[in-house]
Amino acid sequence: MNLRELQEEREFEILSPYSSFSRNSRGREVEETPCDIRTDYQRDRDRILHSKSFRRLKHKTQVFIAPEGDHYRTRLTHTLEVSQIARTIARALRLNEDLTEAIALAHDLGHTPFGHAGEYALNGVSELGFKHYQQSIRVVEILENKGKGLNLTWEVRDGILNHPTKGRPSTLEGAIVRLSDKIAYINHDIDDAIRGHILSEKDLPKEYTDVLGLTSKERISIMVHDIVTNSMDQDAIIMSQHIMTAMTGMRQFMFENVYIDSKAKEHEEKAQNMLTQLFLYFKEHTHLLPPEFLVMIDDGELVERVVSDYIAGMTDRYAIRKFMDLFVPSSWKEL
User: How far apart are CA 120 and CA 85, in angstroms?
Assistant: First the structure.
C-alpha cells in the first residue's frame, strides 16, 4: 500500500461520514494514473496553485481600481482569505480540507481585469454573455495548460461552478466555499472601504454590528463559529437565521454604499469602456490575437467566446497597456 492509499484509508477513519472521500471521487474527464503520494484532491489543489491563471490574480482588481496604497485586497488576496476561512470550517467539521482548498483557490480563476466592472462590460458587449464562474470552468477545462486544461476532478469543478449565491454545490465542501466567499469579501471590502475613507466603523448599521460584531475579526469569528456549531454532524452547511439575516443585510449595505456609485467605483466607467473597446477591436481584428487563441477559432470556437477568453485572462495592467498600444498615440522618431 503506497502513501496515497494510506491517506485515503485514513480519511475513512478520521473524516465525517458526510465528507467527500478522495477514493470516492467521480473522477476526471480524462482518466489518469493515480499519484503514489497525493490524493486526487491534493493533485487538483497543486495544479491550480501552479497555474498561470492563479498567478495572474495578484494583478486583478478586487473592488478598488488602481488604489493608492499597498494594503488593498486584490483578487489573489481575496482568494487566499476565502481559502483560509473555508479550510478552518472544513477542518472543524471533519470534512475534506483538500477538496475545500482546491475549490477555494480556483473559484475566481475566470475573473476579468477590473473586478466585477470588467465582468459587466464583457457580459454587456458579447452576444454570448459572460459570467465569471462559468469562465472559471473554461479556464480549468480548456484554457490552462496550453489548451489541455487541468483535468480536475468532478467535485472541484462542481464547487467552482456553484460558488455564487444562487449556486447549489453537490458537496458540503463546495457549500463551505460558497459561504466563505461571502464572509471574506463582505468583511475585507469593509476594511478596504474604511482604509479608503469611504466608510467609517460608525457608518456600519448597528442592527447588523450588534449581531456580527464591531470589527472584521469579530464578524468573521462569529460567522465561522455559527456555521460550525449549526453544521456539526449534519448533512448540510447551515448558518443560523439571525446570523444569515445580518450578513445579508450587511452585504446589501455594501452594495448601496460602496459597490455602487462610491469613490471606490469612480474609475469603473473608464475600465468598462476600455474592455468594451478591446473586445470590439479584437472581434474585428482576430488575426492580432495570440496564436493559441487563433488555434481555438480554427478548431471551431466562436470568435466572441475566444475574444472574451483573451480579455478575461488579462491583468489590469496588461489591459491598460494593450489599450494604450491600440488607441493612444505615442511619440515617434525618424529612423
Answer: 27
The HSE-up count of residue 332 (CA atoms within 13 Å, CB side) is 5
Provide the residue type at 290 as one letter: P
Domain with residues 3-265, CATH architecture: Orthogonal Bundle (1.10)
Retrieve residue 43's grid coordinates. 493533485
Reading phi first (left if > 0) and then psi (alpha if -120 to 50, else beta), residue 145 is in: left
Whole-angstrom distance, CA of residue 130 vs CA of residue 165:
17
Condensed to tens digits (0 to 9), the pLDDT of residues 270-319 reads 999 999 999 999 999 999 999 999 999 999 999 999 999 999 999 999 99
Residue 334 pLDDT exceeds 80: no
Nearest CA-CA partner of 113 in 276, 281, 256: 276
pTM above 0.70, yes or no: yes
Continuous H helices in the chain = 3-14, 40-49, 52-56, 75-92, 97-106, 115-125, 132-138, 154-161, 172-195, 206-212, 216-231, 241-254, 268-284, 291-298, 303-312, 316-327
Q: Sorting pLDDT into bands at 50, 70 and 90, what band is 329?
A: confident
Between CA 162 and CA 160 the distance in angstroms is: 6
Task: Please give the Cα distance from 169 to 154 (Å, whole number).
Answer: 11
Match 479584437 to its residue by C-alpha cell: 282
Distance in angstroms (rounded) separating the CA atoms of residues 228 and 44: 25
All structural domains of the chain with their residue ranges: 3-265
CB neighbour list of residue 69: distance below 8 Å, 6 or more residues apart: 195
Task: Tell me the C-alpha distance between 318 and 195, whole Å.
Answer: 26
Task: Quickly tell me which residue has 459570467 as its cell.
Answer: 131
Question: Cell numbers of 236, please?
Answer: 448540510
**Maximum Cα interatomic distance, the chain, rounded to a whole number of Å:** 75
Which cell is 9 given? Answer: 484509508
* pLDDT exceeds 60 at position 165: yes
Residue among 132, 137, 139, 141 nearest 112 (CA): 132
Contact 133, 123 (CB under 8 A): no
